[in-house]
Specification:
Elements (H helix, E strand, L loop, with lengths): L5 E4 L3 H7 L4 H8 L1 E4 L8 H7 L5 E4 L8 H6 L5 E4 L10 H8 L5 E4 L1 H20 L2 H10 L19 E5 L3 H10 L5 E5 L5 H7 L2 E2 L2 H7 L2 E4 L13 H6 L5 E4 L8 H9 L4 E4 L19 E3 L8 H19 L18
Parallel strand pairs: 1-2, 1-3, 3-4, 4-5, 6-7, 6-9, 7-8, 9-10, 10-11, 11-12
């Protein structure tokens, strides 16, 4: 039997091709004794449990089934669950975390930091696209014989030198803040878990949610989907936005009250870009689809080869660091598991 650490790889071949750059998956297989699915069909929870005996690690990803007690009963020496995707709540139910993962001090890794790079790039692009009305101007030229539409002013407070409100200093929010540095913005952040010391280190001003909406020229939302964030942004906050403001949401649709958003969008005071909606997909009859000051994309902000390949890189590194006894970058803080996305 091999003396290498044993890794159960739950993901399908399609997932492997998406998140591992050429040669990286083979590197993982060379470092560890990997039992792989890597076929076209996903495994069930029971399939994982049947194969978990003696495993030191389990690698999961998009489409992986939830962990069940039998997995942990079969793998008493399990040290890490490495999730080569975003949120781990789909694979680790609360009761599993409380009963097995936390008591055994099993490391849980999430590659959401890799995905954050793609989402942050999209958020910056969506801010620019929305505030500068590029879609409207392009459609106007294509659909009419005229040149410059007078419906939207082509001049205004754009990204350079503006005040940008970032809702949540999540991994995506922090990456957005980093990308905004060359734009010479004043950055306001609302995040109840962000300390004043961290805000100062990031070069941002920590404010309450209403103040953020009142002072910002543009707002980008990166809050997780939790009970506390359900419809966190509603009529009160949207009423505070100044005329001509831009609102971008690449986090979760549930964070914004869509009924309130529709009312304010219909008033044409604000310009909106939604990569996420509630429900998703948005109903064909939704009035939001009919408003030209509301741009809607089909939940694609996280896509991109760069971030996807970082998932594979970071997953392999998480395994290496865990087995070497080093801190794992991207480890989920299990002490506040209930509050994370």
């Amino acid at each position: 039997m091999s003396d290498r650490q044993r890794v159960l790889y739950v993901c399908t071949a399609g997932h492997t091709q998406r998140v591992f750059r050429p040669g990286k998956y083979e590197e993982m297989c060379g470092l560890f004794d990997v039992t792989e699915n890597n076929g076209p069909e996903g495994w069930s929870s029971e399939d994982v449990a049947e194969r978990a005996g003696g495993m030191d690690a389990i690698v999961t990803g998009w489409g992986a089934p939830p962990m069940i007690p039998e997995v942990f009963e079969a793998a008493p020496n399990l040290r890490i669950i490495a999730h080569s995707a975003g949120s781990v709540h789909g694979i680790i139910p609360d009761e599993i975390a409380e009963r097995f993962v936390i008591p055994r001090a099993i490391t849980v890794f999430s590659a959401n930091g890799a995905i954050a790079t793609n989402v942050a790039e999209s958020a910056i692009g969506m801010l620019l696209m929305t505030m500068r009305h590029w879609v409207h101007f392009s459609n106007y030229i294509h659909e009419t014989p005229h040149w410059r539409s007078g419906f939207y002013d082509y001049n205004g407070v754009f990204l350079l030198g503006s005040t940008v409100g970032v809702v949540s200093a999540s991994k995506v929010g922090r990456e957005v803040i980093r990308l905004l540095e060359p734009w010479r913005c004043e950055i306001l952040v609302y995040d109840p878990y962000l300390s004043d010391e961290d805000a100062e280190a990031m070069g941002v001003e920590r404010v309450e949610l209403n103040e953020l909406f009142e002072r910002s020229d543009h707002v980008t939302v990166h809050a997780p989907r939790t009970p506390e964030t359900e419809k966190m942004i509603g009529d009160e906050q949207l009423s505070l936005l100044r005329d001509g403001a831009t609102l971008v949401n690449t986090s979760r649709g549930s964070v914004i009250d869509h009924e309130a958003l529709l009312r304010h969008a219909r008033a044409r005071r604000i310009h909106v870009c939604l990569d996420v909606t509630t429900p998703e997909p948005l109903e064909p009859t939704s009035p939001l689809r009919q408003l030209d000051n509301v741009l809607i994309t089909p939940h694609v902000s996280g896509a991109g080869h760069y971030g996807y390949h970082l998932i594979g890189d970071q997953t392999v590194q998480a395994l290496v660091d865990c087995f070497a006894g080093r801190p794992v970058e991207g480890a989920v803080p299990m002490d506040r598991f209930e509050t994370i996305a």
